[in-house]
Every structure is written in structure tokens, then in C-alpha cells.
Amino acid sequence: MRKNVWRIDGRDANAVKGHVVWAPAKSIWNTAMFVLAITFAPSHFSWGAFALFLALSYVTLLLGHSLGMHRRLIHKTYDCPKSVERFLVWLGVLVGMAGPFGILRIHDVRDWAQREPQCHDFFAHRRGLWLDAFWQLHCTFRFSSPPRFVIEPQFAQDPWYRFMEATWPLHQLMLGTIFYLIGGLDWVVWGVFVRVAVGVTSHWVVTYFAHNPGPGHWTVPGAAVQASNLPGWGFLTHGECWHNNHHAFPESARMGIGPGELDPGWLILRALEKMGLAKNLGVPRAEDMRDDLEGARSTVTMRPSATQAA
Ligand SMILES: [Zn+2]
Ligand SMILES: [Zn+2]
Known about the structure:
By secondary structure, the protein is mainly alpha-helical.
């Protein structure tokens, strides 16, 4: 069975002690995109630019962030050729949130802290919406006793990922230049500024609500944070809204596992599998291997999958 992949050693670490500090680079980047977006979006609106914003947002967040960064790089829930992995991760970089190593660190540190018996409000998203927005989009957490975080060599030494990590903001410049040449300033404003501002903000909104109390089937014993499912948000979040399922089954490439839990990311993965571009798609581990989960909060029926691992 596929095991969850941990890059974190939290033996001497404390997930509560420490404080939130301003992170200048992140804050300036996010503020710049936000200000440029609201300043120029109304005067540079065109239907073509708007369509570009919608299409590129969906493709980069679905194929890039969800399938490339989250389901492949972070959790290794499926296998694919290196070229496919690198392409998907590049699409994830185009979201404009961070480089691949930055995304790994943000995800893993938060996930580790949430699975500790107690964690700071910063990781639990326990405070109000506005304070959490300021914390997550403009700050970072400085631990008194930080966990050790080591990226596995297959990623850390990959020249493409090192290049992505070193240059991730510049990819917006590259896109902006191409868009300017094709569609003029309207395309730059909607295809870069508005898209990055909306992408980064909506990612935080989903993260906030998915880690606050809400519906879900599964309980991870001893964890400070129980993630929630967000019914109705399957299409817009590419299936990432089934976050209670994801915390219970991080090994699964499929996040929407119950009836009616739409998971576009999973559907795309199945299509990639049929094309020979992905294989060994992870599914929730068998029922007799769920000793680490507490009684279901409500029952859910698992549909057997053609790719079910033994
Ligand atoms: Zn995850
Ligand atoms: Zn989570």
C-alpha cells in the first residue's frame, strides 16, 4: 500500500510555541498583484481577456496546483513519466503562489502541525477571516522549536525544480510578455494580475474553510485539526474541497470518494491513465488498514476502483 510521504521530522519540535512574523517578499508580491488587479481590471476589461483569465486559472490550478503540486509532488498519489510531472509542476508554478519547494514546505509544515495534539492558531486557521487572511497572505510562522524539513533528493536535486524554485515569479513576466504581444494590455491585466490575485486569494479561502469545523466522514485521532468537506465546491476547487477525505486518506489520488462528491482532478487523472500518461492511481486504503482513523462521523460507501491497489 502507498504510504503517506513525510519530509518532516517533528521529534524535537513544538507546533504551538512561536509567533507570526511579517514575510516581506510574500507580502509585497501578493499586495502588488492585488493592487495592480483592482486598479486596472475595470479599465482593461474585454471578453477575450476575461476568457483567458478563466481558462488559465482553471488549467493552472487544476492540472498544476492540484494534480502536479498536491497529488503528485506532495503526496505521490500516482506515478507518471518525469516529463509529465515536470510539466504539471510548471503549470503549478504559473499559479503565481510559490515555487515547488516553497509549496512543499507550506503544505507539509501546516499538515504536520495540524496532526499534532495541539497547534498554533496560525496552522489551525482558528482566528477570524480577516486576521487569517493577513497571516496567510502576508506572514509566516517563526517556531521556537521548528520541525526538521528535508526534501527528498528526487525533487531537491532535480535541475528543473531547482530552476523553478529560483525563478518562479519571473514566469509571470514571461507570460505577461507573451500576452502583451498577442492581446495587448487587457490580456496582461486579466491573464496575469487578476489571475494571480484571484488564484492566491481563492486558494487561501478554500484552505481556511477546509481546515475549520464542517461536515466530514472521518476523524483522525489525536489531531488538533479535523479537516472538513465543503459540499457543492467540487467543480470550482477541482475536488480539493473534499478535504476531510484527504486528511483521512492522504495516499489517495481520489479526493471525492462518496456519492455525489465531484472530483474533476480525479476524472482528469483517469483520462491521463487511459492515455498512458499516469499509472498506479492511489485510492483509499482498505478498511482493515484504517486503525489510524476513528469511527466514521457518518457512513460513506466506497465505490471499487479499477485501479484499487492490493
Ligand atoms: Zn495534502
Ligand atoms: Zn489539509
